User: What shape does this take?
Amino acid sequence: MTRASLGWALLLAGCALSHGRAAPGDAGPEPPRSRPRWRAIEAGDYFSCALALDGVAWCWGSNGSGQLGVGGGEAEIFAPRRVDTDARFRQLSAGASHLCGVDDMAQLYCWGSNLNLALGTGDEANRDRPTRVVARSEERRVGKECGVWGGGG
Assistant: This one.
């Protein structure tokens, strides 16, 4: 974890920083414009995400596999950025380079590295934005036996 990431983690956790600067020449952490209030924080390898009380997820740090959920293009983001989704999360959980969250409708979303099929999306592609994960039991198919497969019936 870089000093800037550590500074953000401490700030988001409600801890005071003893120095105004994270590193020489670095202005240090600045809070997001709307100053959200925080419910929880999760950290993976070289990235962190915080969950605001309103259910909005904010992430910063390394974005090499899309684990910040803000789209591709930037390898690192040094200040919290809102995750690119309209979902409002109740819970977040970070892996080494991926994140999953449960929204206020009890739907599961995952994004970031799909190494070892960690995202549960049914393929091997990384995701740079939250992607809804559908469990097999949610799929319903009518087979030749005239029954319903998976999820009941």
User: Anything to note?
Assistant: The first strand starts at residue 38 and ends at 43. Residues 3-12 form the longest helix (10 residues).
